Amino acid sequence: xxxxxxxxxxxxxxxxxxxxxxxxxxxxxxxxxxxxxxxxxxxxxxxxxxxxxxxxxxxxxxxxxxxxxxxxxxxxxxxxxxxxxxxxxxxxxxxxxxxxxxxxxxxxxxxxxxxxxxxxxxxxxxxxxxxxxxxxxxxxxxxxxxxxxxxxxxxxxxxxxxxxxxxxxxxxxxxxxxxxxxxxxxxxxxxxxxxxxxxxxxxxxxxxxxxxxxxxxxxxxxxxxxxxxxxxxxxxxxxxxxxxxxxxxxxxxxxxxxxxxxxxxxxxxxxxxxxxxxxxxxxxxxxxxxxxxxxxxxxxxxxxxxxxxxxxxxxxxxxxxxxxxxxxxxxxxxxxxxxxxxxxxxxxxxxxxxxxxxxxxxxxxxxxxxxxxxxxxxxxxxxxxxxxxxxxxxx
Length: 395
Fold this sequence. Notes:
By secondary structure, the chain is of the alpha/beta class.
């Protein structure tokens, strides 16, 4: 590794420590009684430390049941960019797993966006349903179709806002995310392929996403281990709630998790690492019931069918000229590498040929676990590709 790459890794290591996959759930939401019909800037901040302008905004979208809802997101750009300039393009950034309310973009968690400023790109970042203006609702964790819709709506409405403010940009349009963000990025690609013929991404960058949740579930049951137990709990809560499976909590979880779901997972007071520490074990059978460990049980089959309905590795036809970067650490204990391998096989079968693949045992960078090491590899690979493509210097 070169000294420049080492420096880049040290700059971003704090970011990668929080990359993961997670969620929440409770009683069914009621539709928003009032919702915005146009995007609105709700706050402007000059981030002096990162030489970045931050525009928080709200925009019309839909909730997980298709009801109109107001969501929130953030637009970031270099503080040197003016309406007389032309930005290099736009990056749709889909954030990784978060649990605590203040970890979403509109609440100021913009470390990744700060990394992009030097590229000359404008970044648009959705909070997703369940964070920002909807933080009083359970987050639609790993419900890829819901999160993709919130992201595409943020992109569409965010570009309208930018145009209204007088900003201009080149046609370059990128779509990126790691972990939950990687899943969302591929779900975004699926959504625009199916329903937005006028949106064409220059390239999609997706790292270690849970693209094939049924395969992930089966894998975890077999090995009885997850490097991020909170994400297993959160996926089950999310799909049970938003897919209205009506599986009783005590049929999914055992103590002490059962009695602490609201406090630990749904309160949005804790980070992913803090929740994992509270769970206190990586053995899945120590926090979910034998019923859910038995893939032949009624409730387990119900859950698997719900996960299958959101499987990105089947059921859609990507444009054959899509350009994609896929990154995954083969030893990833949080999101098994089968997700990327299954996605790659699907894309190739569909005729997509322009796919850069970085799937390998990358070892450990600076002592980080495989999932976080994969995040460092992903960030560095994405940055290097953008530098070469955009021809930017000094980034």
